[in-house]
Amino acid sequence: MKALLLGFLLIIIPLQGKSQECKDILTGQVTDYHSKIPLENASILIIGDFPEVKTNKEGRFRIPNLCHGTYQLEISHPECTTILVEVTVEGNTKFDIKLEHHLEELDEVNVVGDAIKDKTNSAQEEKLRLKTLELYSSGNLGDALKELGGVSSLNTGANIVKPTIHGLNGSRVLILNDGVRMQDMEWGDEHAPNVDINASGSVSVIKGASALQFGGDAIGGVIVMEQAKIPVKDTLYGKTLINGVSNGRGGNITSELGRTFQNGWFVKGQGSFKRLGDHEAPDYILSNTGIQEIGASLQFGKRQFTWGWDARYSYFNSEIAVLRASHIGNVDDLIRSINSGQPEIIRSFTRDLQNPRQEVTHHLGKVNFYKRFEGLGKWSLQYDFQKNRRFEFDVRRGERDNTASIDLELTTHTLSTDFKWDAKEKYQVHAGLLGRYQENFANPDTGVRRLIPDYEKFDFGGFVIGEYQVNDQLLLESGLRYDFNRVDAKKFYQTSRWEERGYDTEFQNLIIDDRGTQLLVNPVFDYHNISATFGSRLEFNNNSNLKLNYSLSQRAPNPSELFSDGLHHSAARIELGDLRMDSETSHKITASFQQDFDHWGIVLEPYTNWVHNFMLLEPSGVEFTIRGAFPVWEYRQTNARLMGLDASAYVDWKKQLRTEHRFSVVKGRDVKNDSPLINIPSANFRNKITFTKPEWKSFELSLESQYVLQQNEVPENIMVFSPEQQQDVLLEINTAPEAYHLLGLTSKMEFPFGNGTRLTTSLVVNNLLDTNYREYLNRQRFFADDLGRNFILQLKFNY
Amino acid sequence: MKTIKFLSLALITGQLFISCSNDDDTPEEVNEEETITTMTVTLVPTSGTTVTLSSKDLDGDGPNAPVINVSGSLAENTTYSGTVVLLNETETPAENVNEEIEGEAAEHQFFFALGASLNASATYDDKESDYVSDETGEKFTTNNPVGIKFTLTTTDASTGTLAVTLRHEPKKPNDGTLADAGGETDITQTFNLTIE
């Protein structure tokens, strides 16, 4: 096995010409096996009486005054496994070495270059490292991602946070959790991703659909959550994080322990628990906004260079209380809430989670196997299983408070395989296939007509991506993907709704049972989607680079867009899907220019996304029921254009003083009707000043200012008839809240105890000035102010 | 080799999951349990003709608007004793929702809003302690109004509106206006009335 490994690692370039005795020179370059990034500071030691040699910035080394003969070299690098190789020196010999690059997760200080590899070469891409993720340990993924340019969120209160990339969210943003595409009912506005932020080692965001290996329908982008790399050496390591949170009067604890062996075996376990009570706005308690989260995962397997496998199971359960005042009866209640300026129900603080609330459990299991073929590349095969169970409890009459109003179970099986040809220096090809089966079951015991019907879904996909390194400066990449989706649903429609939608003329043949007031229909729809990408990366000599990317992507409508039909109490609105929905097609062009100077640097990232048949949910009118009037929100398709810019810069003023600056703006337009798109994030500035003093126990202090402008491009408000007022009134459902400014403070210190143990303490203060504000992309902005000041004290032990 | 065995076993298990799922299931029909389809307000005068006001919305949250019916005009200077009956007619036999309201009387209240032009006034004719609590099985001990029974007194001939609203979890006690009471609207209907 070892011999094979060595053989594979070595590329020996034949020597040139004759040489004299003991005047031979051995030169070469040490690079990362995967990314081909030169490794600086690798040490090359010839066994025997020779001085140690280090590689320079380009990863090159030179050992003079050698004799003819065979030498044993020991090559080591802080982030890689040390290897021993044999080299025969005859004359001036060139000998290149590739190391298997491992992030040294026990001690991240030595990271040079980029240990977390980019997923694409030409797309806009950003990462959150473990250090940042840990600061958000008591929060959630959506909040952490807002650190990145162009990423915002659609919130339902503080606990339900859906990541939004370049103005798009939900089914347009894929979330990959350790190589598994999350299937957790991402279609609903009040459905947050069911992932534990404490379970991942890094998160990358690709702002577009160019990472075709993950899916072709990422019109917004892809969020890739990855596990920290497993070191291939004998070690036992772990960490525990404890957070105390003032706003919510609770906290969380998370702990992980890993055992790894030199021969590649590993096992790793992780668990976390979070409990918060009612949150508080500056002026009042946000009654019923507590949360409880439990997460656990276990992973084990064997990882070697040539082959390996791993199995992982993760469990995530969250119980989230939804602001009591946001549960309303009809349009008059909504008008009252909008006008009153403060929530109608304010109770004293409690940690109890009452109705309305949601309880979601997500199980994820996967097995992955890979094998490297010498001179060819790497093949992998993966099976994953997911089960997502969602309960939503409403404030109900009678004895029904403990019966969920929504009770859905989504089960998904996916089998995928891919092969990556990476043996050639100049080009790489990556191809793969995927098959998926999904089943949704809507429990009828709720006593409420189903919002999402029972359905089965079949997906099949295949992709090819290639990259070609033209020369040292220019790299080209392109890819193509095909996806087939079939959805086979069984749904009851009210006869009156079926006729009102006009389905009786177009879809009458779908009816399988007519029960009088309700119709059972069996829609079976097929979608064929093509996606493609083309991009280039150009490196300039003056520390700058330019990335250009075009991507075409298509997305089939999700169950909510097709089948929604009913009253949503949390929003007091009737939501209507449309069976006529067709796939939407996006053409997105992005550019990314980055330049680093001696003490400062900038990144500029403009983009435009044209979406044909863009599906959106918008207020369209009012329907009258015996309960009063309700705004109707209808899904419709139009052509949309999103244009935006993310810009960032940093300046190192002094050794200890650094400032960072970010600006993001996106403009969304419905080009068919020449009107603004709904729910587009406001332009915002983030400026941060950081002071670091490593001598004072790695002291770090930073102050961040976040200024969010008012969204001035919103769709028009609608006129509704108010039964209470007996007249038409303007429902200010689209009016955006005013601009706001928040200050945040973060400080951190580290206390090493020797023998690898370390305590890190940090204090984070959010909304330092206790500012009253409301955010346009928070669905609870109609009912209450956003969160007030919050202190988070964190203790982290590494061992 | 063990790995391979393990993996194939896992894959086969996965396949079994797929093949076991039954796709012939016909989903069960769900009838809204909580819907109130029909509200009938009966106004019985001390002498004269009884007037009934009704609102019926058989498709609940569906697209059809409720059908409103007022049986006749009210007489001048008359006292009517009113009762409200709520039904869910999507179920057979129709479910009487009054029972649930009575059982949760402390969490519910009807409001009777009279248009300014209508020469009439309404007063509550019942209180929470008239009803038996679902929770305790005994009569409520509080005496706030509920409004299942009320009195409507007319004066001079006029026309105007009467809006009947049922609120869930209003502030109790309140000053008798919707604005002060808050809570969620379970049902609301406005009737055009004539006094002659």
The rounded Rg of chain B comes to: 25 Å
Beta-strand content estimate of chain A: over 45%
Number of helices of chain B: 3
> Quick check: average pLDDT of chain B?
86
**Fold-level CATH name of the largest domain in chain A:** Maltoporin, Chain A
Give the fraction of residues assigned to helices of chain A.
under 10%
- Number of DSSP helical runs of chain A: 7
- Helix/strand/pairing category of chain A: mainly beta
* CATH architecture title of the largest domain in chain A: Beta Barrel
Unreliable spans of chain A are 1-20, 102-115
What is the CA-based Rg of chain A, rounded? Answer: 28 Å
What portion of residues of chain B belong to β-strands? 35-45%
Large-scale geometry of chain A: globular
Structure, explained:
Chain A is mainly beta. Chain A folds into two domains: 2-99, Immunoglobulin-like (Sandwich); 223-314 and 335-798, Maltoporin, Chain A (Beta Barrel). Helix content of chain A is 6%, strand content 55%. Chain A has seven helices and 46 strands. Chain A has a 22-stranded antiparallel barrel. In chain A, strands 9-14-15-12-13 form a five-stranded mixed sheet. The two termini of chain A are 33 Å apart. Chain B is an alpha+beta fold and 196 residues long. Chain B has one domain. Helix content of chain B is 15%, strand content 36%. Chain B has helices spanning 2-20, 98-103, 178-181, and strands at 38-45, 51-56, 67-70, 79-88, 95-96, 108-114, 120-124, 149-154, 158-168, 184-195. In chain B, strands 1, 2, 3, 4, 5, 7 and 8 form a seven-stranded antiparallel sheet that branches. A three-stranded antiparallel sheet of chain B has the order 6-9-10, with no helix packed on it. Residues 13-23 of chain B have low confidence and may be disordered. Chains A and B meet through helix 4, strand 24, strand 25, strand 26 and strand 28 of A and helix 1, helix 2, strand 9 and strand 10 of B.
